[in-house]
Protein: 6-phospho-beta-glucosidase
Organism: Enterococcus phoeniculicola ATCC BAA-412
Amino acid sequence: MHYQKLNSFPKNFLWGASISAYQAEGGTNEDEKLASIIDKYIHPEGVASFEVASDFYHNYKEDIKLFAELGLKAFRFSIAWTRIMTFDNKKVNEKGIDFYHNIIDECIKYGIEPIVTMYHFDLPYYLEEKGGWLNRQTIDYFLEYAQVLFQEYGGKINYWLTINEQNTMILHPGAIGLPVSGNLPTKKELFQMNHHVLLAQAKVFKIYHELSATGNIGPAINLTAMYQATAAPEDAIAAHNWETLRGWSFLDVAVRGSYNYLFEKYLQDRELYPTIEKNDFKTLAAGKPDFIAINYYSTATIAASKNDGTDESARAGDQQIMLGEEGVYRAAENPYVDKTPYGWVVDASGLRLTLRKLYDRYELPILITENGYGAPDKMDSNGEIHDIERIDYLRKHIRAIQEALTDGVQVLGYLPWSAIDVVSTHQGFNKRYGFIYVDRTDTDLKELARVKKDSFYWYKKVISQNGLDE
Ligand code: BG6
């Protein structure tokens, strides 16, 4: 639909940016932080590990000052479970508790809304050794951790995100890292873990609301709309399979409290159905989110499955590069879209479509907690970083949000990935997303100096005028 005039962004629109603890902080062994699964994963030679990352642990004050200069109205970061819980008699690590108070207070000082992700891929290794999410007890550990967070920070935080990209964790575990054994969990195990994570999340929604807190809490899923490769009816069925299994199957449980019928059938038919205890459905139905957060990068294009052993193509998939699944769907190319240097589809209209579909389905406010352009940015001889492709990407996506707002979708804010360069989940430090450049490479830490990219100045202007130029 073309409009004569687009709506303006709401006055209180949360213009922001995001990071996660393990990808930005470093200081992995400091102040009695415990190891997380990420710290124990295999790091391929020559690719940045997370030990120093962007050194946000030591630089957070200067970095938040830069975020204030950028004009951010909101800053999304995650809390490292392993800095907070000690799993011994002490129960909590006061230094970790203080660290996040400091970050939150620093944000508030500059009028930046702190938005907290409670868990962004970095499960404590202590729990992993006990079976991780395969072990039902992990639900109780998450609940205990959540209670500590609500008690400590509840008065200062208006937006909580429970779990970052549960669907990436379950569908693309390899994108987050590879255990030393080299073995990822089986599909059956993954869907059992999925069930436990969903229970943990529902319980946390419930306890948060019982505290009669004034803030909001929601899940954060990696969501992308899809296209069918052709007008063939079989492609349409396959595309619907994908859309359901990749996104709705997670959100239907989080929001409606029940398993999607098609997802249930898929799990049963493939003998992947998890063990579900008597009261689990009650528990799932009892926890409700106030809003939905989505991380949006790309769209997917889907063709009918051939079911002949070739649906799972040989190309490497990650959280955005889709793989086929035998008997369910095949990956197809979309000739109408560009790609980033890392092969992720660039599709701003796909964001508008994703927002519409999400709002249609659940009618809850939406917060966009990630979106961005990963590229091997380089500093030129004048010490400048001209990231024009990123500006172009962000401009188009911001326009798409404005269109979705004009359509009538309720969007609370936009927090692109990433506020500052961070270590990519599986592609090191060369793949950058930040408005602020961190001067280091995969192998050379240099001084870790901060340099504002062209996108910094551009985004600052967008925020200051509450939207794009006409
Ligand atoms: C999202 C994750 O899937 O994508 C982030 O929530 C991640 O943690 C981001 O960094 C970009 O992905 P990558 O693999 O390029 O770092």
In short: The chain is about 40% helix and 15% strand. The mean pLDDT is 95. The pocket of 6-O-phosphono-beta-D-glucopyranose is lined by residues 20, 23, 164-165, 168, 222, 295, 319, 370, 374, 417, 424-427, 431 (CB under 6 Å). The first helix runs from residue 21 to 24.
